[in-house]
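Worked Example 4.2. Consider the chain below.
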Amino acid sequence: MVNVPSTAQSLSNDYAGMGAWIGLATDDPGNTSTPANEVTADGYTRQKTTWTPGDVGVNQGSPVNFTLPSGAYPYLILCAEDGTMIDNCKIDATLNSDGRSSLSRPTRRPDAARFI
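Applying the procedure from the previous section yields the following structure tokens:
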């Protein structure tokens, strides 16, 4: 945990600067720079978020939308412009029958030690 807000914000800003491309995976994407199990459904593409820094160690991302077949997509991946995976985390993302899902406001907090 980071106890100095300005330090926490600086770390969060550095992390957000590493990548802005959000993707999904059907199972654990692993811990290498190439994500395993990334969605391969027709029409799937990673979506770019725009990070907005806060002042207490948080960066908020703009909403991203995916159009996919209904099903479970339990992992979020964060990638750099060149496709290198920066990080991943488990999320609760089940698409309903209309096949649309919005990840509203992806958030990065360095004191949580993960992308949340």
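Confidence is low (pLDDT under 50) at residues 111-116. The first helix runs from residue 5 to 16. Compare this with Example 4.1 before moving on.
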